[in-house]
Amino acid sequence: MTPRLLIVTASVLVMLTAACSSSSPARHAARAAIDQASPVVKQRHPVAAPGDITLAFAGDVHFAGRVARLLQDPATTFGPITSVLRSADFTAVNLETPVTRRGQPQPKTYHFATTPEAFTALRDAGVDLITMANNHILDHGQTGLADTLAAAQAAHFPFVGAGVNAAAAWAPYVTTIHGTKIAIVGVSQVAELASSWVATAHRPGEANAINPGQTLAAVRAAKRLARIVIVFMHWGTEGMACPDQNQLSLAPKLAAAGASIIIGAHAHMLQGSGWLGHTFVAYGMGNFLWWENSYSTATGVLKLTLRPPAPLIARFIPAVVSGTGQPIVSQGAAARRARAHYASLRTCAGLSARPPAGAITPISAG
Questions:
Q1: Which pLDDT score is estimated for 363?
Q2: Would you put residue 141 in left (φ > 0), alpha (ψ -120 to 50) or beta?
Q3: Which phi and psi (to 5°) does residue 180 adopt?
Q4: CA gap 339, 353 in Å, rounded
Q5: What gap in Å lies between CA 285 and CA 92, rounded to an integer?
Q6: pLDDT tens digit string along 239-250?
């Protein structure tokens, strides 16, 4: 069996650090405190010898509309692109659909819902982690959120970005892959209903950058736990291929707090990727498994290969959202055009193709 992985909340970080060096009663107390504070999930990847690590990221995933019928056979829901997702050591996406059949629709235009089979489809596609920090996770209010959290825990499916309180919502998921510890934090920057959706000390909800202090503190806390910190952001202006001012303002702050990699979604458009100093940023991954026609059918999978002590190597695998809602990998000349377009988006994002010359990035630091 694989070891149990604990999602560590800010309230128990000090206890965990002190207890990890031995098998003393303090260590068992720390484990009990963490179990009580946040969900327990299983670690897919056991500790292995040091070596290359491949991470894969894609954008928004829906199980509503035309995609709902694909859940009749969860193993085939994502279609042929499953092989791309499964080929990475670790894969993460943004889940846009609450898992509920109850609750009160919130005062907003779009409301989504799906069944627990969504977690089977995600797992069968090779997805290791979802972020729930987005502008749909509370579409059906607190009841819908409670159902979603319960379904994820029942499926033993790892998630970040939402929880029973602020500590759980901003808690990182921590895993060790090929000897390297990685922490992932999920946060939304979408302002719609944020004041009533954001998690507090006594209210379930999402992690939202409406509370910038909590967000940056979560990144700093994750950095104390793991060598590599990934922040999965839900941000940007819908329909815009260039990051907006809110993205451009927050990204350097996340980097300064310790983010090694920043991944974004929400704009329904691909946005540029590259280096912001020592931090690799992909501002927007677009729609991925998508429920209806939208601003763009361009999508893809971003594969990041970590080869310490060298900086990471990024590879974009372009795809197109098909009529079924499934992303289909582009081939030949279409793929070459798509990769060239994706590379061109780096300019308006203000990112560099390479890290600073001669610099040791946080990703490659020992």
A1: 53
A2: left
A3: -110, 130
A4: 14
A5: 11
A6: 999 999 999 999
Is 5 inside any structural domain?
A: no
Cβ 204 vs Cβ 135: under 8 Å: no
Return the closest-CA partner of residue 154 out of 76, 39, 19: 39
Please give the residue range of the domain that contains residue 323. 44-349
Distances (CA, A) of 72 to 121, 238, 307: 10, 30, 39
72: buried, middle or exposed (CB in 10 Å: 19+, 13-18, 0-12)? exposed
Specify if 177 maps to a domain. yes
Give phi and psi for 91, each to the nearest 5.
-130, 135
Query: Residue 27 and residue 350: Cα distance in Å, rounded?
Result: 45
Please state, in angstroms and rounded to a whole number, the distance separating the CA atoms of residues 131 and 242: 22
Our count of domains for the chain comes to: 1
Residue 205 domain-assigned (yes or no): yes
Q: Mean pLDDT in the chain? A: 87
87-99 tens-digit pLDDT: 999 999 999 999 9
Cβ atoms < 10 Å from Cβ of 256:
14
Structure tokens at 288: 């991925």
- Tell me if 264 sits within 8 A of 230, measured CB to CB: no
The encoded tokens of residue 47 equal: 């500790």
CATH of the domain at 337: 3.60.21.10
286 within some domain: yes
Strand partners, 260: none
Shortest CA distance to 280 belongs to which of 343, 352, 227?
Answer: 352
Given a contact cutoff of 8 angstroms between Cβ atoms, the answer to whether 97 and 137 are in contact is: no
φ/ψ region of 181 (left if φ > 0, alpha if ψ in -120 to 50, else beta) reads beta
